[in-house]
Structure formats: structure tokens, C-alpha cells
Give the backbone structure.
Amino acid sequence: MQDLLIVYAAYVVAAGSPGPSNLAIMNAAMRYGRRPALALASGVVTMSTCWGLIAASGISTVLATYAQALVILKLGGGVYLLWLAWRAARSAAAPDRTAEAPAATSPGGWGLYRRGLLMHAGNPKAVLAWVAIMSLGLKPGAPPETVTVAFGGCVLLGVLIFSGYALLFSTAPMVRAYARARRWIEAGLAVFFAGAGVRLLLSR
């Protein structure tokens, strides 16, 4: 139980810390509403689960051996983050809509789900984070049952964390706050995504 608690605590810190995925979910919640944000969060959770399966099954060792796979993922993720930065910058530069103008149109549930998948798939550090989390709490030779419980608990925590961001930031006060500070929020996201993309492309 103590080992599992260490795993869960480490995962909460890693998944709950501000990052591209969490900020994208917050922005989608305030801009488009609850259901689109949950669709984006579902994509992030799905890809996070895939990375967790890779880490738990030991395939991460293969990825670490073949550095080309990580390089390709890193380049793709960096370019995608820069594309998100460009979109956010373009949105920040757009004038505020008037009361008669239509609200921002959501890209659709599938489009946002796919965006969540791509965002997390382009982050090879996610699988390394999973490996670190599992290694932190699980001793060598841990039985498969313990690994399964640790993995399943982290997946459940991921659902709660990412969905929680979507639900919290889609509330009326948050939506009103976004309407007042839309251009500043989008500009901040553009800077953040651009910085994260460049850092990912230049990282070794």
C-alpha cells in the first residue's frame, strides 16, 4: 500500500502540474464550453494511458534503445506545439466580438479529441515520466497484480485530473473571466506553446 501511495502521489504531481495539455484543456473549457473541453481531455487521457501501457509493458526500453523513435516523436511534438502557438497568436490578434457577433465555433468533439491525442503523442517525455513514476514506488520484482493496480489507479487519477480541469474552467465565472481577458489569455498561450515547442525541438 505504501508503494502504491508513492506512485499515486507522484502521478498527481506530474499530471496536475501546469503543462501544454492542462493549459489547452483550460482554454478549451473557457472558450468552447464543457463538452468540447471534456473531448479534448479524453484525447489526452487516451494517449496518457497508451504511454502508461508502454511503460508498464517494458516497451519503453526499446524506445530508449532506438533513439530515432524518440527524435521523430520530439520533432513532431515540437512542430505541433509551434502550430498551436501560431493559432493562439492569431486568435489573440483577432478583435473582440461584439454582442451581436456569434461565439467562437468549437472544432467539434472528434477534432478536439484528436488534438488531445496528438498533443500528448508528441511528448516522448510522457512515457519517461511514467517509467519514473513506476520506478519510484514499485520495487524490482513487484508482482504483476501490483503493477496492474498501480497503472489502473494512475489512469483513474488522470481521468479525474484532466476532466476536473475541463469541468472547473467551464463554469460561468471562468467563462466570463475568459471573455474579459481573452486576448491576454490567448497571447499567453501562444508564448507558452512556442516556448514549449522550441524547448522540445532543442532538447537532447
Observations:
- Residues 172-202 form the longest helix (31 residues).
- The chain has one domain: 2-197.
- The CA atoms of residues 43 and 96 lie 29 Å apart.
